[in-house]
Amino acid sequence: MDSEAAADFSKTLTTRHKCPACYKQYKKKGHLVEHMKISNHSVHEPRCGVCQKHCKSFESLREHVIGPLPKAICSKIFSEQGCDLCLRVFDSPSSLSEHKRSCCVSPPTPIGTVKMLYSDSNFVNQNCRVPEAIAIDCEMVGGGSDGSLDLCASVCLIDEDENVILHTYVRPQIPITTYRFEITGLTEEHLRDALPLNVVREKILQILYNAEPTGRERLNGGKARLLVGHALEHDLDCLGMTYPDHLLRDSAKYYPLMKTNLVSHSLKYLIRTYLGYDIQAGVHDPYEDCVSVMRLYKRMRSLNHQQDGIEISTAAYHSQNTISNYGSFKAEELEQMTADELYEISQPNYRCWCLDSK
Description:
Layout: H1 3-14, E1 17-18, E2 25-26, H2 29-39, H3 58-66, H4 72-81, H5 93-103, E3 133-143, E4 149-158, E5 164-171, E6 176-178, H6 181-184, E7 195-196, H7 197-208, E8 226-229, H8 232-239, E9 248-250, H9 267-274, H10 286-301, H11 314-317, H12 331-336, H13 339-344
Parallel strand pairs: 3-8, 5-7, 8-9
Antiparallel strand pairs: 1-2, 3-4, 3-6, 4-5
Helix pairs in contact: 9-10
Pfam families: RNase_T
Keywords: Exonuclease, Hydrolase, Metal-binding, Nuclease, Nucleus, Zinc, Zinc-finger
Protein name: RNA exonuclease 4
């Protein structure tokens, strides 16, 4: 083998195809292509403010900069110039100090569940500006022979400005076995004059659909609002109602806020980790949870992701999940693309909340 051939052979052995997002390296171009197909890299992924590496979730990013085995250079710079809440890196310690004054917010003042302030046990603020998003939280009592059946006993809805739209006790349709007083703070007296579940459900639907027919969703030109919450499926099930999936913003199912194995964090953990204060220390207050999950949603929505690469289609914009662009190319065409070109056609497998502000 002559020297030129030997050099080419050596180059072949040492060539690595590097992912431009997560920096993983592969010996074969086909392996990089397969990685890009399933990784769903995009500008919407959390990324390190130091090395710009993409991470699947904020938990992964947190491990990258302040975990048990962080990347050394990133950890060093982050410890001096990084925000532990939003995980952004700033130009200087002074910029970081100024940022922290607004990033760490004070907990909401609970309005309590001991006795509603409204004479008819409910409140609908008819003069409130109807917002783009509404947060909901329900408190459950127990039904059934062993008290394990969740029954909605109180519900709260707030707007983006943290104004109460609806706050009411709810009378379940079946007998209550246990009031779960240690968690709910509710007793038989609280629910004595409560509104029936079907009445509360109709009020909520009227608010969410902005008094339009429920069949006219915003996707088709209607005025239905985004519904924000944590484990929304649970709340909706207890209320006996459904709502269009593309209008739900659930912090328990939002990929960037989930664990690396796609298991949900508790709302209590998310608020302490991303907003910097504690909730649910004693009796759960639906107003406190509503305000907290709305703040979390607005923080995620306000993230400024550079909108480069392939434009997201209208259908994908209204969907929780986007569709990969790789299927429109043949295998040999993909292998001819550079790593950067493969990244440009990659799309996320979830609908980023930053799109709600577009």
